[in-house]
């Protein structure tokens, strides 16, 4: 049994912190991917053919209720055998795809709740003013539907950030992987893993508070408690 | 002269900086029917909530049947009452709320039974029988197994009354029991209150806006204004021949 | 091709089903237990109790589950000389503590959202503080919690896949073994692992939907 050592802590710290760029970069990339791909689900669900929207719903359900870790492995190992591509994607790209797709199903639900929250009268007004479909969405529906969902999207950013270390399992060298490397070299996991935990805490906790504040502000501005429709996931998590 | 069942002695109550009650002295005799009227914000609901132990007075005493409600004796000194003391004193008091506050996860029979079984420790069969009889009396004998969500507002309020009555309190408090009801449902609820009042034995305190009703059943009417009892007396004195100017103004709004 | 794959792969993956389900059950028990303990403590009047639980909740919600898992597995034994015995306890404890922290918020907010009038009506019937909680507040709060608890159960099922990383022999672990032996099969192996997890999740999905319907009834807001 060994006690906590500050020497090890400060020895490991610079090395682990080096991974922050990768971890943060991957978070942003995954999030952007999920934000864009989320629209795909939202619009697919709106296709007025019953069998299609049914199928889309179950595909989303499938992605959402299976482990993102396995989805990462699937993408990482399946791509080489896809006929056209036939090559291994970099771990970083796989992580963007895997985690991005996983969370896009949640983001899609967030968009949907935003759209469902729009008053019936707005749709009718758009019709009465004879807007084209494209104009209706771009000038009336989306500008109203998206802003109220921003705090929820922010929550998902934090949730995603905490799922990013999963990517270490396919070889993305973020803070967790560097900590494990250090641990393996020095036969000592205590301090490096604690550093990782601290980094997550230091970054996610203030962000969560910030988003909580944003949420309150938004609620006041849009004069409602939350976008209607069911909450897609309980404060949710992916792993 | 009979001893009062409830006595308020110089009761004051503040919420933060707002002084809601500024020294209330009041006696309620057994079986007496007291109507409390007054503009909103005058503190009339607070008066009965203090008695039901839903709020604690800032100062003053409330004596129920000779026992101090909010204070108890401990080692010769009067100290703040604990849960046990509160519970022993408030067993004589029942209350009906503006928004019914029925338990939505219980059938109406269970709503009436639960306190008999769990608080009064009465045998389940007997509790069931007493509750069913009481519900029958308020005209809901057919609906024992229904849930509150399946009832109309008037029916809910009648269940709430049965639930309070079945505990056989000595003092029953009514907190604007008709003001959350659709106008056409008010009558059925007042009818039940009138029946209870006729039976006599129980003291009743009604916070109400129904002036005609207050005139009809009350022995005493209190006009509460700005945290003090501005006028009190028989219904004839207070409602039919008001002396206080603010009371006259207040009543005028109801006569239109 | 696909059929032969299924025949080949499914029986291998099925060997891990015991571990996956045992870890899920243990995690769920830990998780719900922690949810109620922490949720109720955060509502207590005792400042120390509240402080300690808030600390627990924020730590576990503020960091990653996978980091917590590794920390419990690799770091905890070093720091305190506590060996959690084996990977089973480290895995179930990490998942349970993590989701317990999230679900404690569900418990807390559900109890708080039972209308104040309910507790007042119970007081008017002279119920004790404990009776008010047991007979009136809790039954209604639990109805609100159920759908969320169901959602989190699905999340916990997903999270059990992490225990393969501390070399427990769950479904994913057996999938990994298959892939080692035949890397070209990797894609289809992991696809079937996903299908396997989905099959396990299906009853939970339907259960959650049922509870959503149930919870809409019988609650006063």
Estimate percent helicity of chain C.
Answer: over 70%
**Share of helix of chain A, binned:** over 70%
Head-to-tail CA distance between termini of chain A: 32 Å
Number of helices of chain C: 9
| Rg of chain A (CA only) | 21 Å
Structural class by SSE content of chain A: mainly alpha
Low-confidence stretches of chain C: none
Task: Report Rg of chain C.
Answer: 21 Å
Biggest sheet layout of chain A: none
Q: What does the main sheet of chain C amount to?
A: none
CATH superfamily of chain A: MetI-like
What is the number of beta strands of chain A?
Answer: 0
Q: Which residue ranges of chain A are poorly predicted, with pLDDT under 50 across at least 5 consecutive positions?
A: 225-239
**Overall average residue pLDDT of chain C:** 89
**CATH topology tier name of chain A:** MetI-like fold
Description of the molecule:
The complex is a heterotrimer of chains A (239), B (256) and C (221). Chain A has 10 helices and no strands. With 239 residues, chain A is an all-alpha fold. Chain A has a single domain (36-222), classed as MetI-like (MetI-like fold, Orthogonal Bundle), CATH 1.10.3720.10. The longest helix of chain A has 33 residues, at 190-222. Chain B is built from 9 helices and 12 strands. Chain B has helices at 44-51, 83-90, 108-118, 124-137, 153-165, 183-199, 211-217, 235-240, 245-255, and strands spanning 6-15, 18-28, 33-37, 59-64, 67-68, 71-74, 77-80, 93-96, 171-175, 203-207, 220-225, 228-233. The longest helix of chain B has 17 residues, at 183-199. Chain B starts with 5 loop residues before the first strand and ends with a helix. Chain C starts with a helix and ends in a 5-residue tail after the last helix. Chain C has a domain at 18-168: MetI-like (MetI-like fold, Orthogonal Bundle). Chain C contains 9 helices and no strands. Chain C has helices spanning 2-14, 17-41, 47-62, 65-80, 87-113, 116-124, 129-159, 171-181, 186-216. Chain C has 221 residues and is mostly helical. In chain C, helix 2 (17-41) runs antiparallel to helix 7 (129-159) and helix 8 runs antiparallel to helix 9 (186-216). Helix content of chain C is 81%, strand content 0%. The longest helix of chain C is centred in the middle third of the chain and has 31 residues, at 129-159. Chains in contact: A-C, B-C. The interface between A and C is large, with 52 and 55 residues.
């Amino acid at each position: 049994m060994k006690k906590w050592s500050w020497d090890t802590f400060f020895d490991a710290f610079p090395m682990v912190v080096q991974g922050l760029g990768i971890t943060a970069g991957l978070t942003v990339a995954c999030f952007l991917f999920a934000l864009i791909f989320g629209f795909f689900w939202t619009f697919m669900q709106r296709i007025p053919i019953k069998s299609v929207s049914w199928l889309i719903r179950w595909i989303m359900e499938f992605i959402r209720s299976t482990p993102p870790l396995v989805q990462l492995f699937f993408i990482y190992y399946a791509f080489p055998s896809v006929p056209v591509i036939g090559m291994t994607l970099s771990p970083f790209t796989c992580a963007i795809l895997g985690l991005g797709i996983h969370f896009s199903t949640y983001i899609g639900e967030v968009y949907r709740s935003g759209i469902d929250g729009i008053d019936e009268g707005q749709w009718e007004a758009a019709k009465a003013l004879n807007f084209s479909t494209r104009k209706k969405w771009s000038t009336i529906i989306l500008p109203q539907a998206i802003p109220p969902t921003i705090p929820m999207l922010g929550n998902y950013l934090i949730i995603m950030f905490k799922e990013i270390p999963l990517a270490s399992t396919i070889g993305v060298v973020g803070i967790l992987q560097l900590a494990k490397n250090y641990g393996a070299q020095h036969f000592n996991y205590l301090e490096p893993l604690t550093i990782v935990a601290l980094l997550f805490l230091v970054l996610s906790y203030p962000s969560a508070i910030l988003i909580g504040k944003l949420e309150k502000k938004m609620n006041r501005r849009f004069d409602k408690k939350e976008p209607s429709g069911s909450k897609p996931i309980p404060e949710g998590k992916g792993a | 002269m009979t001893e009062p069942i409830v006595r308020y002695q110089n009761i004051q109550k503040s919420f933060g900086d707002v002084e809601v009650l500024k020294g209330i002295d009041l006696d309620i005799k057994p079986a007496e029917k007291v109507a409390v009227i007054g503009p909103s914000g005058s503190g009339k609901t607070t008066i009965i909530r203090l008695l039901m132990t839903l709020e604690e007075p800032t100062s003053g005493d409330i004596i129920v049947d000779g026992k101090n409600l909010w204070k108890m004796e401990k080692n010769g000194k009067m100290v703040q009452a604990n849960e046990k003391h509160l519970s022993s004193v408030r067993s004589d008091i029942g209350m009906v709320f503006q928004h019914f506050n029925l338990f939505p996860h219980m059938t109406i029979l269970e709503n009436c039974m639960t306190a008999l079984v769990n608080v009064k420790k009465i045998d389940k069969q007997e509790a069931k029988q007493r509750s069913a009889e009481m519900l029958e009396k308020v005209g809901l004998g057919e609906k024992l197994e229904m849930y509150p969500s399946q009832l109309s507002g008037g029916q809910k309020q009648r269940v709430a009354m049965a639930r309070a009555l079945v505990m056989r309190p000595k003092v029953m408090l009514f907190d604007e029991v008709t003001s959350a009801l659709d106008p056409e449902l008010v009558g059925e609820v007042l009818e039940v209150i009138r029946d209870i009042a006729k039976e006599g034995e129980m003291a009743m305190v009604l916070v109400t806006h129904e002036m005609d009703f207050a005139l009809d059943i009350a022995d005493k009417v209190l006009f509460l204004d700005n945290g003090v009892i501005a006028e009190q007396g028989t219904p004839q004195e207070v409602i039919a021949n008001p002396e206080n100017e603010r009371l006259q103004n207040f009543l005028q709004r109801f006569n239109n | 091709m696909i059929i032969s794959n299924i025949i080949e792969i499914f029986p291998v993956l099925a060997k891990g089903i015991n571990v996956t389900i045992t870890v899920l059950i243990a995690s769920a028990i830990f998780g719900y237990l922690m949810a109620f303990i922490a949720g109720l403590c955060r509502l207590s009047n005792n400042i120390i109790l509240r402080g300690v639980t808030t600390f627990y909740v924020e730590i576990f919600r503020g960091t990653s589950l996978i980091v917590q898992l590794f920390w419990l597995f690799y770091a905890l034994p070093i720091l305190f000389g506590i060996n959690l015995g084996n990977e089973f306890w480290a895995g179930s404890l990490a998942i349970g503590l993590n989701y317990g922290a999230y679900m404690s918020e569900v418990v807390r907010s559900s109890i708080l959202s039972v209308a104040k009038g309910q507790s007042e009506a119970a007081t008017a019937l002279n119920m004790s503080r404990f009776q008010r909680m047991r007979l009136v507040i809790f039954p209604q709060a639990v109805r609100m919690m159920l759908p969320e608890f169901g959602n989190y159960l699905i999340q916990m099922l997903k999270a059990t896949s992490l225990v393969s990383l501390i070399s427990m022999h769950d479904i994913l672990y057996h999938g990994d073994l298959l892939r080692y032996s035949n890397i070209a099969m990797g894609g289809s192996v992991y696809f079937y692992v996903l299908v396997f997890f989905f099959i396990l999740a299906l009853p939970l999905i339907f259960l959650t939907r049922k509870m959503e319907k149930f919870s809409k009834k019988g609650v006063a807001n």
